[in-house]
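Two proteins, back to back. First:
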Amino acid sequence: MSFESDICLYNLTLRQRDSSIGSCAGNFSGKKSQEIITATSNRITVLKPDTSTGKLVSLLSKQVFAIIRSISNFKIAGSGKDYLAVTSDAGNFTVLELDLPNNRFITLFNEPYHKSGIRRLSPGNEIAVDPNGRAVLLSAVERNKLVYVMNRDSDNQLTIASPLEANRSKVLAIKTIGLEVNYENPQFASIEVDYGDYEDQNEDVNDFTHSLTFYELDLGLNTVVRKHSETIPQTSNFLLPVPCGPDSGSTSGSPGPGGAIVCAANIVLYRNLYGDKISVSIPKTDKQQDEDVYVVAGVTHQMKGGFFFLLQTNFGDIFKVELPPDRTLVISYFDTIPVCTSIIVLKSGFLYADTEYGDKYFYQFEKLGRDETFASSTENYSPEALTFTRSDLENITPIDVIPAINPIFDSVLSTDDTSAKIYAASGINDTASLKLLQYGLPITEVVESDLPGPAHRVWTTRLTRADEHDKYLVISFIDTTLVLSIGENVEEVSDSGLATNEETLQIQQIGRESLAQIHGNGIRIIKDSEVVNEWLPPAGIKITVSASTNRQLAISLSNNELVYFEVDENDRLVEWNERKEMPSRITSLALGEIPEGLIRSPFLVVGDQDKIMRVLSTDPSNVLELVVMQSLSGVPVSTLVCFMNGELCVNLGLDNGVFARTKLDASGQLYETRTKYLGSKPVLLSKCMKNGENVVLAFSNKTWAISDFNNLKISSVLVPPLNSGTMFNSDDCTDGVVGVYKRKLVIFTIDDYANDISLNSLELKSTPKRLTQHGDHLFISDSGKTSHIEKFNTDTNDMDAQIDLAENQKIITTAVVNFESKGESYVLCSVATNYQSSGVFSESFIYTYTMDLELVHKTTLSGIAYSIVAFQGKALLGIKNNLRLYDMGLKQLLCKTTSFLDTVSNIVRIDAQGNRVVVGDLRESVTFLTFNAKLNEFIPFVDDTLPRHITSMKMVDYNTVVGGDKFGNIFLLRCSDEVSRTGEDSTLVRTKDKLYNGAPFKLDNVCHIFIEDIATSFNKGLLSQGGREVITYAGLQGTLGVLVPFLTRSDIKFFKALEKAMRSYVPDLTGRMNLQYRGYYQPVKNVVDGDFVETFNDLDEDLKKKISDEVGKSVGDIMGKIFDVRALSI
């Protein structure tokens, strides 16, 4: 008996999360320039400013299959580079070294310090580093602190000693930092709360004492001692180290007294070991006077001869704080930017704002603050009402933005004939926006102009081999050719020597300084704008297809003959002695690039009407002799041979819309074929360049780019479907593309081939709550500080209508319902007045609007409706643990039935198909119900075995539902066929006994995986034309992912074997086991980790060989299988 499921999913992340846990800066590459390392909970990214453009460039991004808790950089004295300290749920203290030449991180140490998982006693919550890199302190939320002593050995390699403990029972650590003490014993400061005196009290205690505690590592005795502790304000939450100046022996050159800046509600304090106490109030705007202001991020910046602090409040305001030698704290308003988790100031004069949500910003300093300051030097603090007025950015200027889409509250997948788009409701209050994500390469348009008629083909060409840039732009129409010059001005050339009364088949710069034009009636050789030679085919015979290099030319004739030419030593194009007759009509030809050290391309690739590709030799000893042949699935209408990633590749465009690529070795043998369906039209191919590497352009229903910088990637290009295109290089535009479509000519660039998801944003009025799609419109429910409903037209990308609600009204959810009794659709909006996050509200009701957002009526409810769906021509609402069915009335909605569900507590999601309803509960997972029309009642018949906290769900089919919970799990639950048939008989269901205080039957948990993000929405549909149907999901932290179903048992078996082998041979950077990570709360089941499997392509060859031997497949076959999953679904 087999226990293997017929269902297995492939989980693949399309866009990684954006919510960062922290950032740091240092010389990680060992060079003088600084890099920024930013970390999300499962990815580490290295960024570096581009000195020429001022933009941030991503140098490296590595996924970590663990939950990263904290990161920090440190540098050992005398070392030429910074190292990265990482703590994670693996329970290891990880030290990483950046190896940029090999595009990787090297794990130097994985020192176990606690059990795996995130626990309050696990000392990985914070990392505090001695500024001189001598010690690293790991702090837990409660009790435990570990100090690691770092050093170098005789080979200048980093060493780490066994940890020293600094534990204090019943003490909570709020914030911990390393202090500047020069080369005295390393010291650390921590905000702590001792709850020992309160733990036995039953009543709530709100007056815990906060202490600032100083710890010192005695390097001589190898012990950690608590050196000093003093009481600080109860609201203290943030610390910054103060530089220790030359008087104290500092090597920083910044005069400073040492100690720490302590930040509490509405106040900034200075404290040190010697009892100095200085305080200053945090200025507020007029609107903030009744609210507490907290510092949430900050940075200490040291300059030659001075230093200052930048502190950001929870309102986004940045204040500059100075500590002059006269021991006064001076504070002044600096600027206002989005609230950050980390602020990085680079020595080169840039500021990186690692925001909590929304886009990340990169600023350049213009000046260092205002003259208007506030100062205080009182030891006994008394609150002062300091006020300031916000202004536009004065001291910093934004020069780059890294797009981000977190948090995502809802998403909708919209698919048309050519592309799929994902609309995401993102952002909070001022950053609220509707994000439009489209799978494809974004372009930067340089110019677009009209043409005199519909163009078929376009070429660019140089006039001599020595030219650096293209000189002519040649456009082919029906029976005519247009020649334009490329320079400061694009002008028509009348004396080019080209036959403009012919339809051009190809243009090629040939030999040293000649130009060849191939057209249906012959070949024209032009030199210095004059025709120097012309080759004509026999009478009645036409040239049909051609291929060329700088020294070779091959043409096919309408009588199926193949003619081959070469350039001789006198720079003349000479026909080879013999012609070759092919068995059927030739449909495509290609001569590959000339390899280094050779004078000709060694192979000619020929495609014919019989769906055969032949590789012929061009060697003078056996010209046009067959080397190898291969049958194809369609007629090759276009062929392109070029080097990609150092290997010679044959790219084929077939008449059935399929693109195929196969590799060609030096002996002429073909291997490692990859295919992808691009559209219903025949595929035409061309070539462009990016940073000296070849990129293949494919033209079908859409325009595609095929690149292989590290791995083969086929991505659509977000440009109108081009008929033809080619590379474009001029003085002003390098690595560009010129294309033609209809009566248009367009020149554009593709800036980043790695970023294959285009992101556009539309600003919203407030925090978006829900997206509801109806035809070509989206209804957006905004529910932040104010509530609104906006009607968005997906065709025009404009807002067609909007309506504002009263200030005390909060939108809970919306839905579009087609009422059968009226024959019309209406927008239903669930609203609560005076709603609080605890669930308390004054009144709850439903607003009913027309599709133009005109109010029809209002219906009062007894509780909040958290979910509304259309069901059999009526509206089905979930109110607490009741299902209510409403029909349209004249003055309000009319309740037709109410079903009390004693197996659930609070319905938050509803989905329906036919006669079946699925509800998702806040605590009690998923329940299937059937509707008995005679009894007018919803009857539960099957539910889950686990009490999941549902955040989103969607019915995949009549018996299956996919869902996510608030702990980051995604699962697929299925009702068996037998139970499903039983569930249709509501009378039989009512007689069944309840199982485990629930429904009579239980759902099968078919699939399960941990994605470490809270799924807020699921959608089902196609992401690419001709691809397989997939499930997409969006996560709160900005994750966009896809679940791809395997179609064959052989694929399931193969990928499970590959995943198992990789788990054995591929260690994680932090030492976390992939199986444990993906099964964090429940064992992973019938889901292959596609993110992990795709790292196979980045492994070294020896490791690939070991894994391939374990799986029993070749390395090429494994890479092909991995490619096929993505190619067939995205």
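And the second protein:
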Amino acid sequence: MAEGKITVSIQPGNIVGLKGALPNGTDWYVFKGIPYAQPPVGPLRFKPPVPLDTLPTDPLECFIDGPSCYSEDVRFQRMSEDCLYLNVYSPQLHPKTPLPVMVWIHGGGFYSGTGDSALYEPPYLVQQGAVVVCINYRLGPLGFLSLPSAGIDGNMGLKDQRMSLRWVQENIANFGGDPNNVTLFGESAGGASVHLHYLSEASRVFFHKAIAQSGTAFNEWLWQREPVERARKLAQLLGASDESDETVLATLMSASAEKMTAIQNQCMSERDQTMLVRFPFTPVIEEDGAVDAIITEHPSRAAEKVFRKEIPLMLGSTNNEGLVLWGFVKEKLPLFQTDPTRFIPATLDVHSEEDKRNASEAIQKFFFNDRPISLETIRIITTILGDNVNTFPGYIATGLHARFQSAPLYMYVFSHMGELNMYRKEFKIPPEEIGVCHADELYYLFSSSIYNTAAVQDHTECGRFREYFCNLWVNFARFGNPHATIVDWVPVERVTKENEKRFYPAAMNLKDIGECKMTTEFFYERYQFWKNLYQKFNGSHLLPKVSNRTNVDLKCGTVCGIVEKLPDGNDFYAFRGIPYAQPPVNKHRFQPPIPITKFAAPLLDCSKERDTCVAKNPFNQQWQGSENCLHLNVYTPQLNRNATPLPVMVFIHGGAFKYGSGNSDCYSPEYLLEQNVVVVTFNYRLGPLGFLHLPSQGIEGNAALKDQLLVLRWVAENITHFNGDPNNVTLFGESAGAISVHLHLLSPVSTKLFHKAICESSVALADYAVPNDTLGNSRRLAQLINPSANTDPEMLETLLSAPAKQLAELCDRTATGQEKRGAILMPFRPVVDVSGKEVIVPLHPIKAMGTARRIPPIPLLLGYNSREGGSFLTHIVKYPERYREDMERIIPRTLNVKHGTPEARELARRIESFYFGSEGYSPRKVNECADLMSDFSFAILMRATAEMHARYQHRSPLYFYRFEYDGLLNQYKKFLPFPISGAYHADELGYLFRMRMLPKEVHPQSDEARVRRYMCRMWTNFARYGDPTPLHDESLPYRWTPVPPMEPDSTAPFHLPYLRINDEPEMAVDPDKERIDFWKKIYDEFNGGLHNPVYKL
């Protein structure tokens, strides 16, 4: 363009721009790179923008764009933290009547983008008589990191935008613009920004009309997930030595902007990193007292307000928003094939696995109509994602505006296909995929040297539509009405009682000149589907479900939980993901947990579970979790602080000390809650992260047991706030969780914190409970990672610097030769620790049980399932040659017999003959294999535990059971590749917990439902009274009698009364008597008695 310099005075000084020619030959005036705030560097990093008092030079030449803000956009090399610049484009500097002003906010997911003229030069808008302002604002962590406890309130990028609006008010008159007629417009993240400012009283004073293109405050990708955790994660990735606010802030302040930008994606969860529309640092709802706050409440609440000033609004989208994701979907197609829950909108209120499956199936049925998820159905996937990401949220915003606001609202759908649909070209969308993708309307508003839009001549069909489209936008900016002589664009009708049920907004279909018309057909069927789905799960299609939240004040801060329904229709209150310890990371890895003293946010969202501990999911074989995993979940049927406190049940999950979590996919306690108890589930560290033992370097071991102990302390201090009774706490667990319960029962440190105990399917005497060579395993682990690490200090350095997942992956390879001969590998587990600061296991359990009279009297409920050994069947059936070649594998490690001796070979022959008969071992004899594994891994030593309790713990009752019921809720045996009768290891859990991962509904009158009622009633009776079948409870048609005590030195035979738990429970004596008698003789022969196990490698 022909250039001439022109000077304009603004408040901070004088600037010099260029005079040029518009496409129609008239003049325009361009001022690029005008600073509108002080550079947000040094102490101003992460702070709200500070107004610029004086220009760096006066006059300041404004001929080129200012630097872009740091982002992932590789197209822009001139990036800087000093990036708060704007460009002004005006057709007249001294018009007779001030001109309408349009302030443009670019998109890019708050992650990339710029207001640079190479992308957004507005000659065709200016040609229509508007003054246009394009701005930069801070992006990514520099613009949206939030850590209020360290003085970073967040939303700096939004505050930059508002500062530019303030600048416009103060200066735009000098460019011929009217400060009393300012239209804020933007696309995608820019459109969402516009809508956020529209809903903010603090921002509305600076503009008079608004256009939000393909983005609103209800877009699912808009809100930052767990912002405080992301801020701390970023600091950790940048090398922060600890989690204190001081260290985190210092790390963030000193880090390079390039490094922060480059690694920001790593702050998201692994799942979010694989989602197609997720951005790491985006807006947050600011806390009370935040400086220059913009967002102080959820937009659904803000949208209900009656604003003092009416501001006309235009909302819209393209007709196939999701098409922009076509290439990404093709690349990530296997993710959708294996996990169709990815189709579920993030704003849909689904928590349970059952709800997720139901929602996912409904979406697939509606959209795919039984067609497979494949390359042929990519278009369907992009349609679903487009609906989730932009289209349906736009209709939510429209519905709320039409319901609560009186200002005019205009809606559009952009359907024009032409040469300027540039994003379609950039993302290489196949020509057969019809539709206008996200952002494809942009170059009908702007010119771009990057996309060479100048090549489209004004006289062409595409050029004429460009002029027409710009005319609509500028008319709206000028009049508040996108009036055009050839189109009658009517505003959206208001929602009233009369039209509420049939309400559907009419939109202008912007297709071609002469073909633009109002429509109610676009999106209608899909709108009705999404509306009904939201109605089902959220209670309303207009509002994200916020009314079912409930808050509880704790010493560390306030937790916000969620109200859900019990199967009987009553409410219960779930608080998931409450942190109970500081993240055990960096130098705190392997160390005892540190109590948390203050939550990261004053109001902590505890409506959903947080990360599990690092482990492989045994069901799908995928690694999951993080080291920041010390969270607990509290479930309570009532929150009335004036009501009688309820018994508390704290559950420790199983999983061989290397799998599992306390999350509701396996342990959702609705049926226990129906019996009026408070239930706590939690995560504890697993594998080497929880049990590494290197005492010479201060790693005493048992960190996971100390996590469990800290949970009990947390319960003692906090459970009253959830209507729980801290003086009536029952500790219960299954498998490795039961071992943990038993170790705490034998620990003088732990027994002060609970009052009853339940051990399901294991005890501390199990041969796999307490190993002898965890120290050796720890050293072997270090050398697997770094073979040159030969000293303990070198090994510790290796173990502290290795990725957590690598430690977990190598865990099994550290096992000793004897451990590898077993059916399950558990190299890292509890150790006897006599030197630690807080010793939980000071004695081997066999010795501790002999001194149990010094332990407070704690009632104990103990038992096992009829076919526990099913958990090892896969091993014994899958590798029959290992057992045929080495039958000594079936000798319990607690027997005092040396491997490889004639004595051992003869004993193995006796055991094989007893279980398998003259034909010997065969993998086809699955029931016999299960019995063998059940007896030597579970039944023998659980009976020994019962006998020792009867001898040494006279002051507290012991109840013993054998769970035999085989029904539809026996969930774990379903993972076996072959059928076995009876109750498999962990099968009783399906009668205590609702397993959302494996949902199975049973008829209320079924045997399964009756057994579930019996189980939950007995377990909660025991928690309440210390007696599972108290005389006054007439709901149970049987009586469970305790094991009678006996003198420690008595030579009388020990008989074990127990409850057979079946569809009709009944008392019996000596479970599995014939098999136990067989083992008693062997233990008498080799050990001098069943209650004298030995432990060896």
